[in-house]
Design brief:
The protein has 648 residues and is α+β, with helices and mostly antiparallel strands. The chain folds into three domains: 26-237, Thaumatin, CATH 2.60.110; 244-297; 410-645, Orthogonal Bundle (Transferase(Phosphotransferase), domain 1). Helix content is 29%, strand content 21%. The strands form eight sheets. Strands 2, 4, 5, 6, 7 and 12 form a six-stranded antiparallel β-sheet that branches. Strands 14-18-19-17-16-15 form a six-stranded mixed β-sheet, with helices on both faces. A five-stranded mixed β-sheet has the order 3-1-13-8-9, with no helix packed on it. A hairpin with a 7-residue loop joins strand 8 and strand 9. Helix 11 (428-448) runs antiparallel to helix 13 and helix 11 (428-448) runs antiparallel to helix 16 (595-602). The longest helix has 33 residues, at 244-276.
Length: 648
């Protein structure tokens, strides 16, 4: 039998038979081309989901610039990722530094990669016959990845930024010896998951800023899952290098822009200098300062802080190598962490010569920054006193900024006086020696050092104790250097800690030596009572100062004394110190004694003490109890330093 068919009918029959043959033979309908654009070798890995068969192969090696094509069956779903720095030991066991799947072989055999690892998730033909895909940072990040459908009208996605550079130090996975960052953990998985599994987390914002198209945590889709129908997808590691022609064009544009900018700036500078020469010296100074600041050049103003590392020399300091500091702290291991401050974490370390050190590491999430870091180096490197912590040196390596201090085995004063289990270790004699040492350290800052310095953040957590319980004033990041002819100043940048700020500073930005005197008075009352100044919030007393003033007026000051040090034979000395503390926290700065007079009163060189006047903030007491918390936040205190408040 002969069947007559035209050309159109023959074409339709051929397409039908081809489709039918593919469906019954199980031939793969989708191909993945995996490309390595990185400057290093990558070991790609693949794992199937939902019990599906693994693709062949499940692991292989791609050197720089190499690619490989893998076929996938219909309705397949699974993950792709890259492994780095893989090797095989003498027994033949295979493992990788990041992304290792734990099979001990080049092939993953159905095992997932270990965190941190960047993955590409695929589901073929399961969403209305469409393929779905997305890049995931749920398990962290180890290298850039990109998905490119080889068909029009389908969107590419990926994460091509190097998150290892911007990764916060506490999430980094790094080599212990070299300090090379190998990966970045997801805070949702490793740090208190409920808190950091949302976009309100600062860690999620860092990931979002670098890779806005990737899924960062579960339920973080928001359009990050894409759909397409394509026969081939390209999965690439790292950003492809631009071709030589494009690089040449970019270089020409760059040179042209630079030359144009030089001509424009030169012309502007010429006319600007002619105009400025006609103006007064005061206008010249102001305009130059603002212009240099706009251009990114830091200008020292009133000897407050110093800005550029390259322009400052510290002959008194040692410069430590980052690798040696990393080794000393066991690569900043959590077990070596001493505490966390506004500047960043502090770690204990032991150098190769056996010397114990404390390493203060600047955090990217810190409210403080380069100015405070430089300020602390400048201030404390020029100071030497038995009651000031000794700065041994610093370490600056790229984004890493660290200060190296002598190690204080007894940590800080607040660990003793505010902890009921430790308070008994400080009897009255030891507490008085701490008070006296603290006063002598402050006097040295104000009068006896090469510089005249106002600390501005004296509090119990900033008073460190050595093995002999000798107090050491620390944390000079917010200190202010005064000129010889200065005795007070005004600032709009109010820094310090609530509860230790004097009223004229907290409310108006005015500060002098009397600011530190006020803070010392608060500390003195805390040391004697064993109670925080802020522990009375929402009670009948506004603060420890309020309670002390009430007991003074009732002539019952002895009730303020910590029961751990109560001793009738020493009570007069304690009452005298309470009176000195009340003199230091008087409302008016002019009525507070200087630190030289405070030391004379402590040593009984001044026998008869003046009666104290009303302390600061007492007049707020009746109002404070009637104000909602959100309107009265200035009265609360969690012990953290305030980086910046604008005074009136």
């Amino acid at each position: 039998m002969i069947i007559n068919m035209d050309h159109h009918q023959l074409t339709l029959l051929f397409l039908f038979l081809s489709t039918f043959h593919l469906s019954i033979s199980g031939v793969s309908s989708t191909k993945f081309t995996i490309v390595n654009n990185c400057n290093y070798t990558v070991w790609p890995a693949i794992v199937s989901h939902g019990g599906g068969s693994d693709l062949y192969p499940t692991g292989f090696i791609l050197h720089k610039g190499e690619s490989r094509t893998i076929s996938a069956p219909t309705l397949w779903s699974g993950s792709f990722w890259g492994r780095t720095q893989c090797s095989q030991n003498s027994t033949g066991s295979f493992n990788c530094v990041t992304g290792d799947c734990g099979s001990g072989k080049l092939e993953c055999e159905g095992k997932n990669g270990t965190q941190p690892v960047t993955t590409v998730e695929f589901s073929l033909g399961q969403a209305g016959e469409l393929d779905t895909y997305y890049v995931s940072l749920k398990d962290g990040y180890n290298l850039p990845m990109m998905v490119i459908p080889q068909v029009r009208n389908c969107m590419s996605t990926g994460c091509l930024e190097d998150l290892n550079i911007t990764c916060p130090v506490e999430l980094r996975r790094a080599k212990a010896i070299s300090g090379q960052v190998l990966g970045c953990d997801n805070a949702c998985k490793v740090i208190n998951p409920p808190q950091h599994c949302s976009m309100s987390s600062p860690y999620s914002k860092i990931f979002e800023s670098a890779c806005p198209h990737a899924q960062i945590y579960a339920n973080n889709d928001k359009g990050r899952t894409l759909a397409c129908l394509a026969s081939t997808y390209s999965i690439s590691f790292c950003r492809p290098s631009p071709d030589p022609d494009k690089r040449y064009l970019i270089w020409i544009i760059f040179v042209t822009v630079i030359i144009g900018a030089i001509i424009i700036n030169g012309t502007f500078a010429y006319f600007f200098r002619k105009w400025i020469a006609k103006q007064s010296a005061r206008i010249w100074t102001t305009i130059c300062f603002l212009l240099l600041k706009w251009l990114g050049v830091y200008v020292e103003k009133k000897s407050d802080t110093i800005g550029d590392f390259s322009q400052v020399k510290f002959p008194e300091l040692n410069v430590y190598d980052f690798k040696k500091v990393a080794i000393a702290t066991n690569n900043f291991h959590l077990s070596n962490k001493l505490g966390q401050g506004g500047f960043g974490p502090v770690y204990k370390g032991t150098l190769q010569d056996g010397q114990d050190i404390a390493v203060k590491r600047l955090s990217r999430a810190s409210g403080q920054g380069r100015e405070e870091f430089m300020n602390e180096m400048v201030v404390i490197s020029k100071l030497q006193h038995r009651n000031l912590v000794k700065l041994l040196g610093c370490c600056v390596d790229g984004e890493e900024k660290m200060l190296i201090y002598e190690y204080m085995p007894n940590k800080s004063l607040d660990v003793f006086i505010f902890d009921p289990s430790n308070r008994h270790q400080l009897d009255w004699e030891k507490r008085f020696l701490i008070i006296e040492g603290l006063a002598r350290g402050i006097l040295y800052l104000h009068r006896d050092s090469r510089l005249k310095i106002i600390h501005r953040d004296l509090k119990a957590s900033n008073i460190l104790l050595n093995e002999n319980l000798i107090p050491k004033i620390s944390d000079f990041g917010m200190a202010r250097i005064f000129k010889e002819n200065e005795d007070h100043a005004n600032t709009k940048r109010v820094v310090g800690t609530y509860g230790y700020m004097s009223p004229e500073y907290a409310m108006e930005g005015l500060f002098s030596e009397k600011l530190d005197v006020f803070s010392f008075g608060v500390l003195l009352l805390e040391i004697i009572s064993g109670r925080r100044n802020s522990s009375f919030y929402n009670s009948e007393h506004l603060s420890l100062l309020g309670l002390a003033w009430k007991l003074w007026n009732e002539k019952n000051t002895a009730l303020l004394i910590d029961p751990e040090i109560s001793n009738p034979s020493l009570e007069n000395d304690m009452l005298r110190c309470i009176q000195i503390g009340l003199l230091c926290v008087q409302d008016l700065a002019s009525e507070r004694p200087s630190m030289s007079i405070v030391i004379s009163m402590l040593n009984s060189d001044i026998v008869n003490l003046l009666p104290p006047r009303k302390p600061a903030f007492i007049q707020w007491q009746s109002k404070a109890n009637d104000v909602p918390i959100e309107e009265n936040e200035i009265l609360s205190n969690n012990g953290l330093s305030v980086s910046e408040i604008h005074g009136r």
